[in-house]
Amino acid sequence: MIGAAVNLARGARVGFVLAREGALALVDASELPPLPRLGLRLVRMLERPGLGSGAARLSAGLTRLGPSYVKFGQFLATRPDIVGMAAARDLEMLQDRVPSFPQAVAVKVVEAAFGRPISTLFVAFGEPVAAASIAQVHKAVVQDADGTQRNLAVKIMRPGVRERFQRDVEVMRLLARIVHVLSPEAERLRPRDVVEILARSVTMEMDFRLEAAAASELAQNTADDEDFRVPLPEWELIARDVLTCEWIEGTRLHSAAALQAAGHDPHAIGRTVIQSFLRQAIRDGFFHADMHQGNLFVDAAGKLVAVDFGIMGRLGRKERRFLAEILLGFIMRDYTRVAQVHFEAGYVPAHHSVDDFAQAIRAIGEPIHQRRADEISMAKVLTLLFDITALFDMSTRTELVMLQKTMVVVEGVARSLDPKLDMWTSAEPVVRSWITRNLGPVGRLEGAAHAARTLADVVADVPELALRLRRLLVRADEAGTGDAHRLERIARTERRTERRTALWQTLALWAIAAGVLVAALR
Asked: Into which family does the record put it (predicted)?
């Protein structure tokens, strides 16, 4: 009871701060029932005079509320399907304006994580060079066994941040429930689901072992790319609260002039930004979902280097084919094919007409081909496409929304380096290469081989499934048709027996595998 009262008080403070900063101006009062509409009108009387736009007010309010709410705003910036594109763009500007914590505290976190004095881990350990709501980064030096010294970046979790976040999430859950009770219409925005998704996302982001795994996977996927690379993690110096990786010396992508001064070609780098993102998304199905200027460098060799892998996106094969074919369809003006891809992927219900959908897509595509290539926004095309699909009952796909939002950011970065960059010409080689490889003869043979393996697995299981069915039928016959409870007990016993059998089979397989491994090592 006391906890609920405390959360209610904290929730009241959140409401007051948002009202004071004018963030509630984003709420459309016309969509509210009479009583909540009156409440909104009264609460907005608390607004400070001389405030800016509604979205900018939301950013200001979240910043005042602290790091957890800043993280919440940054998360909402990746979900324009919830807050709208205008608010999402403004929320992108949210920065973690958090002072660094003391050097001595950072040292204690590192020593606690590894159980050793910091002097045995690093030759040198510098002051923080960057600080955010969850962590801060230090520059350190390590010495290898051959005496070589290397610079490393050490990311350290902010002490107490998990406890603070869990406390704030409880308040967010309370506020989401209140919104649901007062305005059931707002449930279309899924406030309770949004809070739970945020909680899971940030919980994962607060385990640096998972971020290191994401960096390692992206590095493996892009190992053969000549124009992109990822700083490799130092696995011996990684724990839940500490992430250590290669230190990157390079030029940030904030300014084309700075890149030119460092001897790089901003136009070529802009093209690399687009192509690297599309290779990750279409070829690998695993992409960096936070590719803003602050997370991108160009090293001395001219390679694009990405950092900070807390937010990543995944696309399944179906989504990758969907993306590749619709982009190529717009490039080739094949709107019927673009429409068919939507239906084949199951994104648009079958009761709609492919021809009608193709006509709607043509309304997006044809104006594109009346303009210069450097005036066409790939991200805007996808945004318009998703708007059209809403008219055809296409359900929201979280992974596609993440993709769309990342493409908006990536396109913005590329165009800041080269305002006349032809996005479609830059994208075409990546898209066509994937389609040729995966939908051509080689890809079809590989798909047939995969289908054959799946079918073989099913066929191999048929005898065992038949035996299970036979045993159940025999025991059911013995039990008699009227003894339903006894039949259920028999079925439970059968399931327990099968689970035990499966467990022992699994343990046996692991034992065999371990034996083979030991023999191989010998």
From this structure: Belongs to the protein kinase superfamily. ADCK protein kinase family.
Cβ atoms within 10 Å, residue 318? 13
Residue 430 · residue 275 · CB < 8 Å: yes
The pLDDT tens digits for 468-507 are 767 776 666 665 555 556 656 666 666 666 555 555 545 5
Give me the residues paired with residue 154 across strands: 138, 244
The domain ranges of the chain are 1-97, 98-247, 248-439, 461-521
Tell me how many degrees the CA angle 177-33-391 measures, rounded to the nearest 5. Answer: 85
Among 380, 29, 388, 32, which Cα is nearest to 187's? 32
Walk across the sheet containing 135-143 and list its strands.
124-131, 135-143, 149-157, 242-246
Q: HEC profile for 364-394? A: HHHHHCCCCHHHCCHHHHHHHHHHHHHHCCC
In angstroms, the CA 172 to CA 168 distance is 6
Residue 297 CA to its chain's centroid (Å): 21
| 265 flagged as catalytic | no
Comparing CA positions, the residue from 342, 368, 370 lying closest to residue 355 is 342
Task: Give 429-436's long-range contacts (Cβ < 8 A, gap of 24+).
Answer: 429/275, 430/275, 430/278, 430/279, 430/282, 430/283, 431/278, 431/282, 431/324, 431/327, 431/328, 431/331, 432/328, 433/283, 434/282, 434/283, 434/320, 434/324, 435/324, 435/325, 435/328
413 compared with 8, residue with greater pLDDT = 413
Q: Model pTM?
A: 0.71
pLDDT category at 184 given cuts 50, 70, 90 is low
Q: What is the average pLDDT value for the chain, to the nearest integer?
A: 78
Q: Are strands 228-229 and 304-306 parallel, antiparallel or unpaired?
A: parallel
> What is the CB neighbour count within 10 angstroms for residue 238?
23
Q: Number of helices and strands (H, E) in the chain?
A: 20, 10
Catalytic residue among 227, 290, 334, 418: 290
In the DSSP assignment, the letter for residue 147 is S
- Amino acid identity of 114? F
User: For 419-446, what is each residue's pLDDT tens digit?
Assistant: 888 877 888 888 888 888 876 555 555 5
CB 141 within 8 A of CB 149: yes
